[in-house]
């Protein structure tokens, strides 16, 4: 097993280090002359032209990838997108039919809850597309179309590199459908493609520049009993993912909230010393949201919260507001989640390691849950 880890202390450490490759390999072969063309989807133009609704179904981390993807896919395709937990989906008689595209996301391709939801959607006449990391798995075999993520085998139980690959695949799918439907201008699509192609290098920068600091900082927090995560827009599902990772790996109570929801309840949780991670939108690209998130930070800090901000390089406004600032390179808002999640994966792994826990095999969890 030591050899398989290739010198890393755990599979998870190895897999987090492979996040840049997971994105790069998922993009490979799917960009032609600056436009997204997914060869596996050849011949399905009519299917994509005929849909009026997209429902993304998944469980766990894959469902958060779906929530991230929703913003961009809706924007680029102008098709309404809903994201649902697979195990909730089929127990409520959802309104679906031949004009519905049900997109399932699963690293393993074997999650029973997701598989049953896909079968259910098919029986109801919906079109199905599987985003999957495992060649030939059951869920892709049960689907009309497949877009594989190429994150490589993921061994650690909690998903990391597959998550960034899933978001990448959703973006590719959104741009592919947008091109077919003419809902995204070629020049805009080309710009998005350039942004996507720059992401692996930017993730590598975070790993190189921030990982040691985040790990040290996580080890200081080994006794923490609760951590909150706040995000807005695409940062919201990243807050949920940050909280999930911390629960899974470090067994710490953690919750993610939409920053705008703070005043409607969660702010009551804030007491002196409470650590809160805040994903800060870009002041250049999302000035209005940036201002709102900064004011959320002010509100919780005034109540004694310890704020750890994840903010883009050069965001000077955040510095005096936060106790710690973790920097991510500049990116367009849709792509920022692919960067903002990296410090959160490192943090959860670092904290669990500091507690002496097995990050590859957390208690009570299975890599692939093949029962309902
Ligand atoms: C399990 C794993 C999670 C994963 C979820 C979905 O619960 O512990 O890390 O996110 O299943 O798995 P899938 O293979 O469908 O992506």
Automatic annotation (TrEMBL):
Catalytic function, reaction form: D-fructose 6-phosphate + L-glutamine = D-glucosamine 6-phosphate + L-glutamate
Domain of life of the organism encoding this protein: Bacteria
Coiled coil (UniProt feature): none
Annotated keywords: Aminotransferase, Cytoplasm, Glutamine amidotransferase, Repeat, Transferase
Localization annotation: Cytoplasm
Catalytic residues identified in the record: 367
Chief location category: cytoplasm
UniProt EC number: 2.6.1.16
Domain SIS: 44-183, 217-362
Reported function: Catalyzes the first step in hexosamine metabolism, converting fructose-6P into glucosamine-6P using glutamine as a nitrogen source.
Subunit structure: Homodimer.
Protein name from the UniProt record: Glutamine--fructose-6-phosphate aminotransferase [isomerizing]
Included range, full protein: 245 to 616 of 616
């Amino acid at each position: 097993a030591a050899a398989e880890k290739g010198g890393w202390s755990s599979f998870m450490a190895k897999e987090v280090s492979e996040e840049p490759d997971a994105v790069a390999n998922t993009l490979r072969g799917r960009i032609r002359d600056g436009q997204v063309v997914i060869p596996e989807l050849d011949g399905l133009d009519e299917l994509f032209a005929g849909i009026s609704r997209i429902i993304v179904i998944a469980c766990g981390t894959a469902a958060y990838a779906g929530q991230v993807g929703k913003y961009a896919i809706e924007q680029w395709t102008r098709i309404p997108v809903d994201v649902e937990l697979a195990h909730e989906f089929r127990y409520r008689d959802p309104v679906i039919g031949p004009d519905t595209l049900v997109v399932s996301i699963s690293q393993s391709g074997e999650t029973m809850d997701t598989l049953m939801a896909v079968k259910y959607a098919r029986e109801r006449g919906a079109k199905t597309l599987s985003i999957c990391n495992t060649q030939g798995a059951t869920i892709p075999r049960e689907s009309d179309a497949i877009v594989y993520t190429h994150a490589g085998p993921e061994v650690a139980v909690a998903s990391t590199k597959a998550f960034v690959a899933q978001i990448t695949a959703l973006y590719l799918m959104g741009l592919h459908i947008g091109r077919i439907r003419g809902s995204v201008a070629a020049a805009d699509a080309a710009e998005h493609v350039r942004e996507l192609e720059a992401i692996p290098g930017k993730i590598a920068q975070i790993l190189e520049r921030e990982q040691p600091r985040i790990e040290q900082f996580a080890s200081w927090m080994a006794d923490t009993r609760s951590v909150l995560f706040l995000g807005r827009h695409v940062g919201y599902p990243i807050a949920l993912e940050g909280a999930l990772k911390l629960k899974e790996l470090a067994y710490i109570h953690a919750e993610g909230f939409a920053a705008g929801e703070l005043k409607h309840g969660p702010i009551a949780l804030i007491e002196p010393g409470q650590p809160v991670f805040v994903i800060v939108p870009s002041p250049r690209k999302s000035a209005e949201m940036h201002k709102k998130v900064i004011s959320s930070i002010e509100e919780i800090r005034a109540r004694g919260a310890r704020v750890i901000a994840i903010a883009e390089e050069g965001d000077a406004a955040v510095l005096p507001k936060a106790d710690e600032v973790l920097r991510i390179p500049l990116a367009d808002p849709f792509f920022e989640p692919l960067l903002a999640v990296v410090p959160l994966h490192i943090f959860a792994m670092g904290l669990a390691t500091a507690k002496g826990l097995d990050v590859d095999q957390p208690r009570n969890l299975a890599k692939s849950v093949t029962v309902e």
